[in-house]
Each structure stands twice: as structure tokens, then as C-alpha cells.
Amino acid sequence: MRCCFQAALWLILPLLLYRSPPGDLATVRAYGREYQVGTDLGPPLAFWLADIAFRAAGNHMFGVYLLAQLCSIATFRGTVSAGTRGRWRTTGSARGLAER
Question: Where does 1-100 show beta strands of DSSP type E?
């Protein structure tokens, strides 16, 4: 529940507060639109996904912000599920150390 509240907060606030894309988001949009395979900025998948999300949202930044929050939720859920299944107990996590 908290994860979804945080995602909604970080989705709504940029839409309300930013008049132009913040940070490197304009660069991501510029590279994503060209669908280049090799750039000096790293692997192109993030640029391509940002462009697809932008176009899917009707050429609005809402799609890029939504994609970012969906990736954050997926990462959080994967981390929590891996931790609750005991995959990190051997790496010295606090929970694994407390059980020994």
C-alpha cells in the first residue's frame, strides 16, 4: 500500500510542478526518438522505452513518469519477494544475522 502511495505521489508531483522535463529527461527523449543502437550514454533500452511510453500517452510526459513509477514498483516488489524467500540470508543481511 505504501509503495503505491509513493508511486502516486511521485507521479502527480512532477506533473504539477515541472513545466519542462527535469534533469536529463530531455536528453533521454532526444536519444529515444532516434532509436540509435549505440550511444555514449549507455544501453539504449531505457531511451527506447521512454519514447514508447511518451508516444503511448499521446505525446505527454505522463507516460514517461508512469513508466518510471512502474519500474520502481517492480524493483521494490522483486526486492521484497527475494528477501522474504530467504535468498539473501547467506549474504549477511540483518534478518539473516538475527536468525542465526
Answer: none
